[in-house]
Amino acid sequence: MQDNSRKPRFSSRPGNSSANVTSAVGMGETVGRLRARRTSLFTQTVMWITGLVCVAFLFGSLAQAWSNSQLMQQVQNENKKLQQIQAQHTQLVQAADHFKDPAVIENEARQQLGYIRPGEQPVVIVGSNQQGQQNTQPPQKKASPPGFWQEWWKIFFGE
Predict the structure, then answer these.
(1) Candidate from 16-30, 94-108, 113-127 with smallest mean pLDDT
(2) How far apart are CA 60 and CA 52, in angstroms?
(3) Half-sphere exposure of 24 (CA within 13 A, CB side)
């Protein structure tokens, strides 16, 4: 019997070619080398997919951070508006409380509307630009020109 332990199971070259020719042409691949190349291709594919997934997570995180930043800016702007409105509300409440006082109401009625209490005599102070003369007569109405329908009335029925 022959000793097959030294011979490789698969020949690295075709039967009638020399070692130099097959190595130069690239036909000298062994099974182990093919397996290593397949494993390497699988490893590269897994690495690429893992890298793409990591990049996708990175972009997702950056987008979320940017969105959160925009929302925080909107919240700050709305808080400023709220503080301004609350300050305006406080001023209006104070003004309303101020004008609820009967003395303030009376003072405003006297100054702005010219009201007097029963039994008081009003005193009108005339400024120097009016030279002591006050126009007590209301202005007279000017006669408005007759309207269109009034002219027709005169035409059909006379005056």
Answers:
(1) 16-30
(2) 12
(3) 5
Q: Which helix (H) or strand (E) holds 103?
A: helix 102-113
Instruction: Determine the Cα–Cα distance for residues 3 and 90; give it in Å rounded to an integer.
Output: 107
- Spell out the residues 6+ positions from residue 58 whose beta carbon is closer than 8 angstroms to its own: none
Burial class (CB in 10 A: 0-12, 13-18, 19+), 148: exposed
114: which 2 tokens?
A: 């010219």
pTM, to two decimals? 0.40
**Per-residue tokens: 39:** 């494993």
Containing 85, the helix (H) or strand (E) segment is helix 31-99
Confidence of residue 1 (pLDDT cuts 50, 70, 90): very low
CA distance 73 to 69: 6
